[in-house]
Amino acid sequence: MKEHLTEKELIEYQFKLASDIRMEEVSSHLESCAMCREYLERLKRKFSALDLLREDVKISEDLVSNVVEQAQGGVGNLTVKKRLLRFAHKDEWRWVGAVAAVLMVGLTLLVANLARQGRRYGPVKKPGSPIVEKPADTLRPQSEARRMLFARDEKKADAADEFEQPPFAPASAIELVVLPRRDNVQITIYNSADLTLVRERRNLTLKKGWNWLQFMWANTLIDPTSLSLEPLEKADKVDIQQLVFPARLREVGRWLIRSEVSGRVPFEITYFTSGLSWRAFYMGTLSQDERKMDIQGYVRVGNNSGEDYENAQTRLIVGKVHLLDEIAELARRPYPYGWPFVRGDRIRSISGALEVDSIEIKDRLVVAGFFDDEEIGRKEIKKEGLSEYFLYTIEGTETIPDKWGKRLLSFEAEDINVTSLYKYDEERWGNQTIRFVSFANDEKHNLGKTPIPNGSVKIFSQADEPVSPSASRDGQGYLSYVGGTGIKYIPVNEDIELNLGPARLVKVEPTLMDFRTDNYVFGNEGNVSGWDEIRTWQIEITNTRELPIEIEITRGFGTAYWTLQTDITYHGLPARDSTARMAVVQSKHDATHARFNLNLEPRSKRIFEYTVTTYHGAREETFIKSKEQEKM
Amino acid sequence: MNDTDKSLIDAHIQGDPTAFAELVRRYGDSMLGYLMRMSRSREQAEDFFQETFKRVYEKAHTLRGNRFKPWLFTIATRVAIDGLRKQPHCVSLNQNLDCDNGRCEQLSAVADTSWEPSQKAVRAERKEQVRLAVESLPERQRATLILAYYQQLSYSEVAQVLGCTIGTVKTQMFRALKTLSQRLPDISEEMR
Questions:
Q1: Percentage of chain A modeled with pLDDT above 70
Q2: A71 — phi, psi (to 5°)?
Q3: Strand ranges for chain B from DSSP E
Q4: The domain B1-90: what is its CATH number?
Q5: pLDDT value of position A148
Q6: Dist. CA A597–CA A421, nearest whole Å
Q7: Which of B112, B118, B189 should be substituted to probe chain A, the one whose Cβ sees the most A Cβ atoms within 10 Å?
Q8: Could you tell me which residues are beta bridge partners of residue A392?
Q9: Could you tell me which residue, A372 or A563, shows the higher pLDDT?
Q10: Beta-carbon separation of B58 and A71 below 8 A
Q11: Structural domain boundaries of chain A?
């Protein structure tokens, strides 16, 4: 058998498509090959998606009766259209069938029209008379109060056939009353799609029979297509019949609820909205020796959805979740489907105002007490892995009014071992030295419990001089801003390298000291066909900081055919200081670059030289041959 | 066909009205499940279901041998494929509102709240991806996959249903799986 199994062989094995002999061969191979076993597991996981379509389907007794009745000669419960089609297929009855179909359709329309008129002109309630519940709380947020209205159809309250026919949707809001406020609400913010899932629980007082519940989403970014209502108790006695969007009423939906019980029933209303967002940012504080760092992670949740969320349990999704539709686009529609009027300008203006208002909002939050440090300190964000994305649950509840934002502490880690490294690479950053701080998102670095969402990072450093003697004892000196950068999503156990920008106190100055050519090769006609170029560079590094540093210098040679003279000449050091000489590590970085790593003492200068020989023309072949001989 | 199937068919041919109803109950769940995967809606599946058993009722006397289940699925497959060919596939947003009991897949992605909604939403969305991936398969491959994987018919039974050799069934199955391996979404245990 071959070294590893192919995907075809594994699929055939998994689904028993291969012959018995082949199955045995594959099985024995799998016993000895971990890689193929792993690949098989991946395939199994892949195909396990098919199980999502597995569901227990139960036929109803009605369907059985219909089938039996139809088979025994009747037409059972087939649709009218199907009956007509079946009838029309018999040629001899074609015309009779067509006439009968017309008559049936006409009769059906007539009956339906009469029934509708009967309801329309039936007894009408006096305005205000059927109010069964007063507004429960005058302190309720306005946006919430205007959203939820509830009506009951009491026309058939005492009728024996109260469940026989659903009532037609009420044409006015005269009978509608305000519902009790939310008992609780949970919001889950999917940042990548400008999407938030809202689950709210409310206690509705139902009466036996038909009930109407009205939901309005005017001036919000709620996606009406996502509205859903479910009873949390007595589900077998309460049936959500339909959700209708009445004509001529914009941004209104009404649920028809059939209840077999009277009294309070808790319901859960869920929907998607856009306009809620969150972003992560981080503050790092380097210790004086810059070997340790404390880091705090925050999230700032902003609400521009048009709706207030009081005491909401807040959950944040990190990572991208593929969604079938752009909810923001759906939310711009005043009507669920196909209405021509679009309010895009208003939405855009809100979105545009978000960043502009951020600072002002933040200031207002400080005044209003939303940035209470003690409160932030108490809050904790619980993280939970969900496949390729991540769920952060903020402990407790938060109130996030419309147009407001709130900063929450995400995590805190202390004494993270970090490595400071200065880098010099003319091809990438010109003649500037760039400073980097690196660590890893793992347990060794007191991190690694969760992935780190993308966001901005600001790094500060403990200054040398403390504010006061007591502050010095506490290690709380002045903080100086070191630099800032943005980070991308960092999975667990991945390295993080923060680019803190140019370092003014560490300088690298390369100087070309010598240039010559040598080893000319002449062609048959006496022309030069190959030569070597030999350059000697002097690199001067100055560290004016009070701390020792490590620096990485990358030098490019413009060709893949080069050799570096390993005998580096050092300046500014005692001739026999072999330890210091060893401090410079030289390595081939890639085909055209070499790297030099060295450490510098505080307030010191180091100079070293290297000589590089580059090969050109016919000398490139000489270079290649010499390399091949070295390998042999 | 086990003895009960055989006795029920015989009883039905001899005019016992309860025998046919018992057959419908016996195979109704798996047959409706099969037709729901083959069709585009529950309503359509129920129409196919009725048509299938109507043909069983009428053609029971033509059943030869003792393999009722493959024969039943053969009829259902023909009914479904013929029915799907007659009706062009069109997707309307409004159909979401017409579906009852939350059975409509598109709407369930946002409307089903019987469990954790965010996970439910993602799960429903993935389910839709799987459904679309299965629906995108050619008819024969789709029928082979559904019969073998979901209905758990043996390959020889599938061959009987589709009227072809076991080799052809395996080829169709492999092609279906090969296509699906490219189109199925990645899921992990947490999301299942």
A1: 66
A2: -65, -30
A3: none
A4: 1.10.1740.10
A5: 54
A6: 10
A7: B118
A8: A316, A383
A9: A563
A10: yes
A11: 7-47, 66-120, 127-276+304-408, 418-502, 506-631
Give the separation between CA A443 and CA B4, rounded to whole angstroms.
63
Of A7, A225, A385, the CB nearest to B190: A385
pLDDT in tens, A471-508: 444 445 678 888 888 888 888 888 888 988 898 899 99
Q: Is residue A280 classed exposed, middle or buried when 0-12, 13-18 and 19+ CB atoms within 10 A define those classes?
A: buried
Predicted confidence (pLDDT) at residue A214 exceeds the cutoff of 90: no
Alpha-carbon gap, residue A94 to A100, rounded angstroms:
10
Instruction: Write the secondary structure of A530-570 as one string of H (helix), E (strand) and C (coil).
Output: EEEEEEEEEEEEEECCCCCEEEEEEEECCCCCEEECCCCEE
**Is residue A2 a contact partner of residue A10, using CB atoms and an 8 Å limit?**
no
pLDDT, tens digit, 9 for 90 and up, residues B35-51: 888 887 788 888 889 88
Scan residues 415-474 of A and list those with Cβ closer than 8 Å to B: none
Alpha helices in A379-449 (DSSP H): 426-429
Q: How many helices (H) and strands (E) does chain A have?
A: 14, 29
Which chain B residues are within 8 Å of A8, Cβ to Cβ?
174, 178
Per-residue pLDDT, averaged over A243-272, amounts to 84
Average pLDDT of the residues in A118-135: 34
Q: Tell me the fold of A506-631.
A: Immunoglobulin-like (2.60.40)
**Residue located via tokens 């170029």:** A533
Residue B92 — pLDDT band, cuts 50, 70, 90? very low
